[in-house]
Please model this.
Amino acid sequence: MSDLSSEEIEEAEADLGEYDGERNSEGERHGRGKARLPNGDMYDGEYEHGFRSGQGTYRFRNGACYTGEYLQNKKHGQGIFFYPDGSKYEGDWVNDQRHGYGEYTYANGDTYTGEWFNNNRHGQGTYVYKDMGSKYVGGWVNGNQEGEAELIHLNHRFKGKFLNGNPIGRGKYIFDIGCEQHGEYIQSEQDKGEGEEEEEPLLLVAPKWKASEITKLTLWTPHGENPPSPREASLVGAAAAAAEAVEERAAAVTEEEKIPSITVTNEPAEGRDDEPSLHEVSSEVFSPARDAGEEDEGSRGEEENKDQEDQGTASLEDKEDESKEAE
Model:
């Protein structure tokens, strides 16, 4: 990042160098004008009583450029600063410093959008890593990531606290597949070798993540709330699994009772004219009026058969009587 350095330090003496523009009755630079300062910088903008005040553009000899508001020769208000390395800041300025709210685009494509204090990222802000596709959303203190925040990656994110740019303490990882991993980052100190003096400061290494439990998504946030204990999480998970198993078994049994077993074959229809077709079966099942009609027809058929049998019996008896008489 390009901090306030030589490219932002402008010529303080407003009456030095060449000037072409308006003046007041006292001969001071006042109004609109252009100036070429002794160090090679150039300014084109508004003056007030000999000072750069109002809107103006200041071009540095090293290629940097500022366009925005001035107050008594200092950047103050809204303005855009283009740095020689290709980075850019657009936002609030106070007394020649980035102060308030603004967006900084770095030379590598990263961006920070948020609060500033005395030229440093300070307060709440979002830093986007262009190459990684990740972003940090949370607190900042004197340019470092610090406080409650969320580090968002492509398929998961971490919610917790940060200190000096590193996560620390209790937090959780939230995965897109629908689960969370709770745990904490533990700060450890680098072991000292034998013979080293104790007066030398210990070197801090990156904190290590210690996972405690994996659970389903919860509404827990790192604002002082406690995550579910491993025992509670395991009990809840076991109960949910058992309930799901019982429900699945009950559903399977119910489906088996509802659905009859039907065997479909590809045998030819020859010799099976007396067997009803699937269409006929379905019609019989869902057509109660047809069932009643078929029953009536069957009763009538039985009565007709009985009458025919009676007639046949009577005829046979008549023949026997005729034979006896002939004898």
